[in-house]
Amino acid sequence: MTIDKRHVSAEGFDQLLGGGVPVVLPVPGAPEAFVFIEPRAQELGLRIEISTNDDAPDTGLRNIFARIALRHGKNYFEVVVRTPELFHDAYPVLCSVADRVQLGGMSPAQALHATLDRMSSLLRVPDSLPRDREIGLFGELLVLGGLIERLGASAAVEAWCGSQNEEHDFGLPDLDLEVKTTTSESRTHWIESLTQLVPKVGRPLWLVSHQLTTAGVGAGLGLPDLVDAVSARIGPGYDQDRFADALSQAGWRDDYRERLTARWTRRATSRGYEVTDAFPRLTPEDLRDRGVVMDRITEIHYRIDLDGFASTHEPPEIVRLSCAFEGWT
């Protein structure tokens, strides 16, 4: 059987697949890693030893997933494929994940995301983030940076839920934050649904409003700069994996970097507004009270103007910090 310095060759792997028996192939290096074939369970996978049993990330894919397993008293991060007709093509993918961990120093979750991103980039025309998503993500990362300063990386990353289809962008211990970012000369923001500005029961909701404008040469920050700054402050480990996962869910890809050349600075001071009855908004309750048949309305987007609008309450410290972050240098 032909073997290269680290991995069984494709021909040798096909011979093992055809054998119909369980196989465990060690991948030399640290941490301990194995490629395994389980014919009875119809599984091909990569098993990498880890020191914790943190949750595995969601790949968002049907045919490849990650899990944490306890085997022989050790915790392993496993990348698993359960479609036998894809085993031949999946084997190089698993080898790439192992190489990124053992040779590149990535965590298993980072290596999995990086490998899948590279594979998907082969199948799509290079593109970039839409400008509105670039601006929106920039604003959310400004808030995340401010929260890291106050809460620490772990609590701040855990609070960021805008990319998880939650109603609000950040869920803090005592309140929720919705982040809106505009490049308009006026403080106007698009609201994407009737429930986006509805506080959860018993939890205050604050809206953080950013106004950005393009910066001069050498000034301001680009979105890639802000991603790198926040990533560096979080540091390696589980929190970094969660941050990378959240970025991916928000639409970020590393191969967008060369196309995201705009640099941004604040047009005006960022502000926090408590969303109370006096706040300009539409809600399902308002429309129902007016006799509107709600099931006949399938989608609503509307724009609010906060120029000159004053919040009824002074923002708490955590909201002020969320508004004030400028980026690390």
Compact description:
32% of the residues lie in helices and 23% in strands.
Structure description:
It contains nine helices and twelve strands. With 329 residues, it is an alpha+beta fold. The chain has two domains: 10-121, no CATH class; 133-324, no CATH class. The termini are far apart. The mean pLDDT is 90.
Spans where pLDDT lies below 50 across 5 or more residues: none
* Span between termini: 53 Å
Structural class per helix/strand content? alpha+beta
Element string (H = helix, E = strand): HEEEEEHHHHEEEEEHHEHEH
Number of strands: 12
Shape: elongated
Taken as a percent bin, the fraction of beta residues is 15-25%
- Order of the strands making up the biggest sheet: 1-2-3-5-4
Largest sheet: 5 strands, antiparallel
What is the overall pLDDT average?
Answer: 90
Alpha-carbon Rg, integer = 24 Å
Total number of distinct structural domains = 2
> What percent of the residues sit in helical stretches (DSSP H or I)?
25-40%
The number of helical segments is 9
List the helices and strands and how they pair.
Elements: H1 10-19, E1 23-27, E2 33-38, E3 43-50, E4 64-71, E5 74-81, H2 87-102, H3 108-121, H4 131-151, H5 153-159, E6 170-171, E7 176-182, E8 188-191, E9 205-214, E10 221-222, H6 223-234, H7 238-249, E11 263-274, H8 284-289, E12 302-305, H9 317-324
Helix pairs in contact: 1-2, 2-3, 4-5, 4-6, 4-9
Question: Could you name the key traits of this structure?
Answer:
alpha+beta; elongated; 329 residues; five-stranded mixed β-sheet; five-stranded antiparallel β-sheet
